[in-house]
Amino acid sequence: EKGNYRHFMQKEIFEQPTVVAQTLNSYIRQVDQSVALPQIDYDLSQINRVTIVACGTSYYAGLVAKYWFEQFARLPVDIDVASEFRYRDPVLEPGGLALFISQSGETADTLAALRHCRAEGQTIAVVVNVPTSSMAREADLLLPTHAGPEIGVASTKAFTCQLAVLAALAANLAVLRGRLGREEEAEIVRHLIEAPACLNAALDYDEAISEMAHLIAPARDVLYLGRGPDYPLALEGALKLKEISYIHAEGYASGEMKHGPIALIDDAVPVIVIAPSGPLFEKTVSNMQEVSARGGKIVLISDAEGIADAGEGCIATIEMPRVHPLIAPIVYAVPVQLLAYHVACVKGTDVDQPRNLAKSVTVE
Ligand code: F6R
């Protein structure tokens, strides 16, 4: 089943170019470079706000989507983890789209939140990987990811496929709301179509990441920093490292460092900085320099240009292909996953079955 791979997680990381392409194929019409969602009996152009609910890694995919829905579709977005959402009496007004993201489609808190939103009259959209799941059955708008079965407990390929679907949904809502013209829609589609090749290029860095894993493995704490749509990747990187290598890790919005966490910085705390070239690069790098000035040991994940610009003094750099900011969160998921994977391998943990965790959390 695992073929030439040591672990399911590793196999699933390497499947991403294929499964993201597969997923995009069902949301994009290549002939006219447009976005096409599955049919539903509801006029999505009438949506006036989006409420996103999910747990764990799926929640981080939702956090990225919030940036996209706001930027492209100019829709207000509320987002929460399901266990909080359910118990906080959220305000749900008519015309809202409630969007649930789940690999398994069975996560108890997410499912309960879905039922609550249905009772409150929201239109229910579901991004789900298991097409026969409870959430899939209870959706008005079913948006499947085509990642195939995910065996590794740590979610990898489901995450990048969720991002692909969410980017297509953001573009579609933007078109329906008259925020994107034909040409801009085609441009977004062209960037999305580039994602699988860029994921392949990102995977080429596997060996280099494996060679630097020993730099992180001895750490007791690790910080991840990112900004804008790449900030959720800092959270995802920290979650992956925690769950499979058992190293304590936290993700922060890079601009938040100086509001507290920078006090943690010393030469024993590696700081992983996710900074693709783009409109937020300079800002992220200036936060990174604040960390270096305090003796922080930095691993910079960027493209050749970003590394040439800011890589000096880092203990390691991880070079990604140069990508459009829209697909950066999809492509930069790879180095973050690989880093956690290789650190866990150095530590000899059970990568596919981390202690205390279950693949599908069907209890509250
Ligand atoms: C992390 C991970 C979990 C899941 C979370 C939600 O690697 O796998 O955080 O993302 O339990 O699960 P689903 O997506 O099945 O609702």
Question: Can you offer a commentary on this structure?
Answer:
Keywords: Aminotransferase, Cytoplasm, Glutamine amidotransferase, Repeat, Transferase. This is Glutamine--fructose-6-phosphate aminotransferase [isomerizing]. It catalyses: D-fructose 6-phosphate + L-glutamine = D-glucosamine 6-phosphate + L-glutamate. Residues 40-179, 212-354 form the SIS domain. The protein has helices at residues 8-14, 16-25, 56-73, 82-85, 108-119, 134-137, 157-176, 182-203, 206-216, 231-245, 281-292, 304-310, 328-331, 333-347, and strands at residues 28-29, 34-35, 49-54, 77-81, 96-102, 123-128, 141-144, 221-226, 248-253, 270-274, 297-303, 316-320. With 364 residues, it is of the alpha/beta class. The longest helix is centred in the middle third of the chain and has 22 residues, at 182-203. It is globular and about 55 Å long. Bound molecules: fructose -6-phosphate. Fructose -6-phosphate (F6R) is lined by residues 55-58, 102-104, 107, 110, 154-155, 239, 243, 360-361.
Sketch the major β-sheet: 5 strands, parallel
Bound molecules: fructose -6-phosphate
**Strand composition percent:** 15-25%
Instruction: Give, in spatial order, the strands making up the sheet with the most strands.
Output: 4-3-5-6-7
Number of helices: 14
Say how many strands there are.
12
Order of helices and strands: HHEEEHEHEHEHEHHHEHEEHEHEHH
> Which regions contain 5 or more consecutive residues with pLDDT less than 50?
none
Give the distance, in angstroms, between the N- and C-terminal Cα atoms: 32 Å
Structural class: alpha/beta
Computed Rg = 20 Å
Indicate the overall shape. Answer: globular
Percentage of residues in helical conformation: 40-55%
Mean pLDDT: 95
